[in-house]
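In this supplementary section we document a worked example of the pipeline. Step one takes a protein sequence of length 170 as its only input; no multiple sequence alignment statistics are reported here. Step two produces a three-dimensional model, which step three serialises into structure tokens for compact storage. The input and output of this example are shown verbatim.
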Amino acid sequence: MENNINYYDSEKTLYLTQIRYLEEQLERYQLKHDKLEKENQDLVSQHNAIEKDKRDATEYLKRFVASKEKKVDELDEQLEIQQQAAHQDREVLKLQHSHNVQELQEVIDKLNAEITEQAAEIEEQTEQLMKLEQTRSYMESLEKQLICQRGEHEAAIDNLKNNEELKRQK
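The serialised model returned by step three reads:
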């Protein structure tokens, strides 16, 4: 009878040791899960900040382009008025016409320089938007990876629980 008691005590001790080990392992996985959850939240926050920055940049670019288009339209209108005035005055004021043509060419050169500069700025801003899009895409892939890892961790925890349940049933 004493052998049976010793046998049951040693078996009980073994099960208690296994339970402690599994509880410690579960706690480690829970800590790892909590850490990954925090990292996920940080990544989501960063992603949201990047999205806001992207929206802000887009709005800024739209306003900037609209402003520049308005300015170009005004300058086109002004140029047209100046050209009409130059045409009407050409016969009467040939010397003035020569001077006006020179001034108009300077305005055109200035506008072309501004357009070239604006095109370079737009190209740079387009590149920045592309980089932001790449960053957003990278963040989405990280988020998917975290979701996948979370699923794997949950599956591992479920597997450990099932194994523990099977051992208990034995």
